[in-house]
Specification:
By secondary structure, the chain is an alpha/beta fold. The chain is 38% helix and 12% strand. Strand 7, helix 9 and strand 8 form a beta-alpha-beta unit. Helix 2 packs antiparallel against helix 10 and helix 11 packs parallel to helix 13. Its EC number is 3.7.1.3.
Length: 427
């Protein structure tokens, strides 16, 4: 960044020239500067409208909403899967909306474990979001397998990133059956190369699965073209579908016909679902991985939120996301230099990062609290990371400028020192 560009007036000029600046008007951002969309996206007018419409249908139609609502609730999971398929680069039949992310990990890992002919070891990494490991370990225990023996964990060289070559070597060294990795590391924001890892896995007869929670809606994917076997994700981050919103999953059509490890009536083939047969007949496509009745009030906001994403297009979203995160990295370098003990823990290569930036500082937890009290909502991840997410649909360049300036003012004044460094709770 040129020194002449490091002022608020230049940020305002960037906002005026931003072709997506109008999108912010569709959101009710709860704080002055909201940089926590990688944890929970804010409410959009589109999501609220879809939820209100569904409540009206519930009021007016009652149980007839399953057949007479617009769209009918009965196939809501499949309909939303069709809409999400372009965001992950999949065929419509390969995507469905269902369950929660953790439940989807359980059912997919369990299903593919049961179908393995060879090794039942699963390869993960030490920087994964913990729920991935919890679920995999539980599936091992359910099958009488020792998790400590069957879960192979790739270590990080720097505590921030995962070397993909180490992942490949681990597949060679440990006779792995399934690779399960995040698309984006939740703490540092490193974007892994899904195409490369999938190809390397398949060359070794290893199944390749991914957790897209920190990339869907901000990073384009090509799951079908890359021949990924399965994937899971949530919809409350960059998809802005609301707290605890319904999750989604992808299964490559090559694997259609398997009986899910967690079978439930909503995954039954639709044509005979209400015949109430005692024998489970799974749907012929990814719809089989639905378990319980779809929670319509948790799914409707996603239906509305997708309107804006489709209108803008995932490529334009990614372009602005990279521009914002590059601007943020440059500002941290320029305004929070070594004298402030700040450093960027996210890969500097734009093609190797997702949508958020991890800024490191020894007092990160206190700084995160001070920023939030000052109207800049961020989150803290141990041991020393403040995550800032300039989500492209509602964040502007001036927002990023102001956030960095307030951080600088907090360190200048020592305002963070009055906060408890050992606070527990939701961040």
């Amino acid at each position: 960044m040129d020194e002449s560009d490091a002022d608020r007036a230049s940020a305002e000029r960037l906002d005026r020239d931003d072709p997506l600046a109008w999108c912010a008007e569709r959101f009710a951002v709860p704080d002055e500067i909201y940089l926590d969309g990688n944890s929970l996206g804010p409410l959009s007018a589109d999501a609220e409208r879809a939820l209100d419409d569904t409540v009206d249908e519930w009021r007016e139609l009652g149980i007839r909403g399953w057949t007479d609502a617009d769209p009918p609730w009965f196939r809501y999971g499949e309909r939303l899967g069709d809409r999400l398929a372009p965001l992950v680069g999949a065929r419509e039949s390969e995507v469905v909306v269902a369950n929660s992310t953790t439940v989807n990990i359980h059912t997919l890992i369990g299903t593919f474990l049961d179908g393995l002919d060879g090794s039942s070891k699963i390869l993960v990494n030490e920087l994964d979001f913990p729920t991935d490991h919890y679920a995999i370990r539980a599936q091992f225990r359910q099958r009488g397998l020792d998790p400590d023996e069957h879960l192979v964990v790739v270590e990080s060289d720097d505590g921030r990133t995962i070397d993909e070559e180490r992942v490949v070597r681990a597949m060679d060294d440990h006779d792995v059956g399934i690779l399960f990795m995040p698309s984006v590391l939740y703490r540092s924001g490193q974007l892994l190369d899904i195409e490369y890892l999938t190809r390397a896995a398949h060359e070794r007869d290893v199944l390749a699965g991914f957790d897209l929670a920190h990339s869907i809606g901000v990073v384009p994917h090509e799951l079908s073209n890359h021949d990924v076997d399965f994937a899971v994700w949530c919809s409350y981050k960059y998809l802005n579908a609301g707290p605890g919103a319904i999750a989604g999953l992808y299964v490559n059509e090559e694997h259609f016909g398997a009986t899910p490890a967690l079978a439930g009536w909503w995954g039954h083939e639709k044509e005979t679902q209400f015949e109430m047969n005692p024998q489970f007949t799974p749907a012929a496509d990814t719809g089989a991985y639905q378990i319980g009745t779809i929670p319509i009030l948790s799914a409707a906001p996603l239906d509305g939120a997708l309107d804006l994403i489709e209108e803008v297009g995932i490529d334009a979203i990614r372009e602005k996301s990279l521009a914002l995160s590059s601007y943020l990295v440059a500002l941290v370098d320029e305004r929070l230099d070594d004298s402030f003990e700040c450093s960027v823990g996210t890969p500097r290569d734009p093609n190797r990062r997702g949508g958020h930036v991890a800024t490191e500082h020894p007092e990160a937890e206190r700084i995160a609290q001070a920023l939030t009290e000052d109207g800049v909502v961020v989150d803290f991840r141990p041991p020393n990371v403040v995550r800032l997410c300039p989500s492209p649909l509602y964040t502007g360049y001036a927002d990023v400028w102001d956030a960095v300036e307030r951080w600088r003012e907090i360190l200048d004044s020592g305002a963070h020192e009055r906060f408890d460094a050992d606070r527990s709770g939701v961040t």
